[in-house]
Amino acid sequence: MNRAVPSSIEKTKPAWTGCAVLSLAVALLVAGCGGSDKSADGGPLPSAGAAATATASAPEGMAWIPAGEFWMGGPAESPIAELRSKLRPGEPVCTGLSGGFTDCEPGHQTYVDGFWMDVTEVTNEQFEKFARATGYVTVAERKPRPEDFPGADPALLVPGSVVFVAPDSPVMLDNPLQWWRYVPGASWRHPDGPQSSITARMNFPVTHVAFEDAEAYAKWAGKRLPTEAEWERAARGGLEKKAYPWGDDLLSNGKWQCNAFQGRFPNADAVEDGFKGIAPVRQFAPNAYGLYDVAGNVWEWCSDWFRPDTYAKLGPGVARNPKGPGDSFDPDEPGIPKRVQRGGSFLCSNQYCARYLVGTRGKGAIDTGSVHVGFRCVRDGKNPASAKP
Ligand SMILES: [Ca+2]
Ligand SMILES: [Cu+2]
């Protein structure tokens, strides 16, 4: 490894699960996170959105997600079988495709109240406004504390984040460290490393945001992060038990409906969807609720703690406004607190992750952003139809 990888990563076999999991980053940045409502110097963040809450008309850039019941999780077997049928014989695949997406079973009836949701992922332009107004410094921009990494060479404890670097030739898919690299100086301002910038990417989703960074933005904007149930309700756009936010077929009329990864993962992206790497927001058709990019492009933080048995532990009957379990546990990396991420990213591939399946789940260490993790926000409010006389 090109950086002090604490012994925990050496002992932990990289999790063979969703591509949201970045064991490397987890190991590098594992440590306590402070409160989510503090700026880096500890002061309270001013709020731009407080005055704008509870308006009856549509908040700018948000769509109303109606209250209602839907079937949550448990992707149907047929689309998964369809994906499996296209795999090359002997090709290693993720546990979801090979053994089933067990952490999103069983599917279950869920009800959520109505709410507003950002129609796009939060963009660099929006996040920059926040950073400028508050002086907020993201986790990736802060120097890791030596006490959090006992035994690590202090010279190597520098701010940075995890970047996807495609290998030159095909690799076995058993070790994500072959395509993930911790890059000093990488952050939301410098997504691919210190030499890169967001100047020409202001309408791209912000990336390299840890959970507390996303929460801090949401609070400033007078919003909050969605629960996992809210996220899935919104992403499905009112379609029941469909495999994708647009229906049951990955392609519609032969065209990709989201920014993902085609070809041999991870070295040879065939770019059939038109975008190599991350894409600007709003490049594909929105779902029926008017939301863009709920599948692919970047993972989106949800407020729920991650456990693989969350759904299995729900009681009988309809789950009403579920907010997730009280704590986190990932058997792949015990002891590392994780929150749910949803939607998959530009690195989702039929060969590796396929988490653009709308009922599937991702997970991320709360202190770890990366080049393919972003978020969008929600806001409580009233049904605009009933609010009007
Ligand atoms: Ca792509
Ligand atoms: Cu994925």
Unique ligands: calcium ion, copper (II) ion
* Residue runs with pLDDT of under 50 for 5 or more positions: 1-46, 48-55
Which oligomeric state applies? single chain
Strand content: 5-15%
User: How far apart, in Å, are the first and last alpha carbons?
Assistant: 63 Å
Question: How many individual β-strands?
Answer: 16
* Helix/sheet category: alpha+beta
**What is the general shape?**
globular
Q: How would you sum up this structure, described in words?
A:
The structure is a single chain. It contains 8 helices and 16 strands. The chain has 389 residues and is an alpha+beta fold. The chain has a single domain (78-382), classed as Alpha-Beta Complex (paralog of FGE (formylglycine-generating enzyme)), CATH 3.90.1580. It has a 4-stranded mixed beta sheet. A 3-stranded antiparallel beta sheet has the order 1-4-16. Strand 9 and strand 10 form a beta hairpin. It is globular. Residues 1-46 and 48-55 have low confidence and may be disordered. Bound molecules: calcium ion and copper (II) ion (CU). Calcium ion binds at residues 259-261, 271, 273, 275, 346.
Looking at this protein, list some descriptive labels.
single chain; alpha+beta; binds copper (II) ion; 8 helices; about 15% helix; paralog of FGE (formylglycine-generating enzyme); four-stranded mixed sheet; about 400 residues
Secondary structure: elements and pairs:
Layout: H1 7-11, H2 23-29, E1 62-65, E2 68-72, H3 77-85, H4 95-99, E3 108-112, E4 115-118, H5 124-134, E5 160-164, E6 180-184, H6 211-220, H7 228-236, E7 251-252, E8 255-256, E9 263-264, E10 268-269, E11 299-305, E12 319-320, E13 338-342, E14 362-365, E15 373-374, E16 378-379, H8 384-387
Parallel strand pairs: 3-12, 11-15
Antiparallel strand pairs: 1-4, 2-3, 4-16, 5-6, 7-8, 9-10, 11-13, 13-14
